[in-house]
Amino acid sequence: MMTERQRKFREQYKADISPLYNGLLHIAVIYGVGAAALYYGFGKLQHATWEWVLVLPVFLAGNFVEWAMHKYVMHRRIDVFALRAIYERHTRQHHQYFTDEEPTIDTTREFRIVFFPWRVLATLGVGGGALGYLASVLLNSNAGWIVFMTMVAQYLVYETFHYCCHVHENWLVRNMPFVNTIRRHHTAHHNMGIMMKYNMNLTFPIADWFMDTSDLRRGLVGHLFNGYSEKHVKEELKPIIRKFRHDHSRVTLDGPELTDDERSVMAA
Fold this sequence. Notes:
two-stranded antiparallel ribbon
């Protein structure tokens, strides 16, 4: 059930979206450019063999970068123009628009609050190109292209998984492995009480498991294949989750105002 606070924020946010914004164009550019980059990269490979092993360390590093960006940039206000803008868009907008009780969208115009702006794709292209070039210098050109393509693919997975977290319930998102896990994981992250610390991964909850910032208490395999189960939610978090699920009286644009007892639980 949507609170009055969330309803008013949504109405104002949608009213402020430019009439020129087109949600389908937004994602067409993201996936079109991403697919073109992958196609171009594959075309540059020359009988790659062992270089494919690089996918795993790049993927794991990307998983931890995803976690760190979410925790230390998206949820921490840093007074530097670009970083501050990321915080404003995420904590002060995305987390006001969605809660664990109402995390879904209804129209393509709402893609504006789900998908990253195009400049993130451009930044990733520059960063991926730089790291790919470094790998090509240190190893060979195949290694460089595989590093670049892994980063592009990981970004596309990020956007796809995040979209799956904010669509209405359907057979696919409920039953597809990994997608159902991250859907529950991210919905829990949108609880106003725990949003500033828990469930920072948006693809696979590997870094959350390793850094103990998951709301679950179980092993890595259990985290990856948890699906919708709430059996392993940490007992100490349950009172905070219940409190903030419907009561937003202590919620601000910058997160929850916790009691001393709640802060001690969150700091543990």
